[in-house]
Amino acid sequence: MNSDRLWSLIRKEFIQIVRDPRTLAITIVMPVAMLFLLGYAASNDVRNVPLAVWDQDRSPASRELLDAYRAADYFHLAYDVDSEDALRGLIDHGQALAGLIIPPDYSTRIVRGETAQVAMIVDGTDPSIASTALSAAAMIGQTKATNLLVERAASRGQSAVTQMPVEVRTQVWYNPDLLSSHFMIPGLIGLILMYLTTLLTSTAIVRERERGTIEQLIVTPLRSSELMVGKLLPYALIAMVDVVEIIAAGVLIFGAPINGSLPLLLVLSALFLMSTLGLGLLVSTMASTQQEAMMTSAFFMLPALFLSGFLFPLSSMPWYLQAISHVIPLRYFLIITRGIMLKGVGVEVLRTEILALALFTVIIMGAAVLRFHKRLD
């Protein structure tokens, strides 16, 4: 092996790498970004589950029970409601993942030495959160009941009291069997669509540049917006076929339910596709090579994978990662798919998510058009 020839080849490769600073930057920054996301976001610990409370008793005894739930970091007492409809609305919107109902005779039963029953309702769309919330609710209730038993025994001079003073009755909504497939399939619809569409369109413009046909597009009378639409529509049609395939496979093979409107799901899937296709086109206008475009797409998809709520609950993440998740379209689409398929909700409940996806689509597509227009000059 000739060391001079080998060194010349190594030197040439380093020169080529340095001449492509974008790819070099991505390869250096991506491991740090992956470590950061995995270190903080990749947590299966369920903490600070948003809890809606309907306290019909409003007594010192009921406040002590709420203090017991507040002391444990499993729940965050986020909402105080005055009706079951208000509690159901918070769970349907995904603002609360659990609801605690304290009956009006709670304190009276405690004073009489009877068993006071409270209801814990858990959103079962995410089985990992639901199972932990159920266990935590039962544990907190049992601990509170045990403490009250000790107090009663001490006050009466008895060694033991057999009747439990507090009983927490749990109920799971939307996914009572806690099947993980019912939670994963709606999420996989959004993840697969985002991956395929972003990856496909990220090479649309840069492919023309590598093949030397970009000049032919520049001299045509097509406007940049028209060119973008022309590039977008074929992929959009292919992506809609993928939508139908994924939904059909999820329902027929994995038994995922569709409790809501299928046409609404298809329409909102098309809206989501516009944002992911636009993101791919935006990446394509920024990249110089197809390899760089694919790596840049992967760099954008990493935060979407970890910070959208697909793999890990957002409530367990630090507040700054939760803030970043608000600019990720996949977060809103996951709420839409799980809301329609599992909860059977409609436009009135998903209004915020629909507006967010529409805003992202306008911003991303507008940025792609402006970016390409600058390259035409």
Q: Layout of SSEs?
A:
Blueprint: H1 3-18, H2 21-40, E1 49-55, H3 60-71, E2 75-80, H4 84-92, E3 98-102, H5 106-112, E4 116-123, H6 127-156, E5 166-173, H7 180-201, H8 204-211, H9 214-219, H10 224-252, H11 262-286, H12 290-307, H13 319-324, H14 329-343, H15 351-376
Parallel strand pairs: 1-2, 1-3, 4-5
Antiparallel strand pairs: 3-4
Helix pairs in contact: 2-12, 7-10, 7-11, 7-12, 7-14, 10-11, 11-12, 11-14, 11-15, 14-15
Strand order, biggest sheet?
2-1-3-4-5
Structural class: alpha/beta
User: Helix content range of the residues, please?
Assistant: 55-70%
Mean pLDDT: 79
Oligomeric state, counting identical vs distinct chains: single chain
Provide a compact summary of the structure.
The protein has 377 residues and is α/β, with parallel strands linked by helices. The protein has helices at residues 3-18, 21-40, 60-71, 84-92, 106-112, 127-156, 180-201, 204-211, 214-219, 224-252, 262-286, 290-307, 319-324, 329-343, 351-376; strands at 49-55, 75-80, 98-102, 116-123, 166-173.
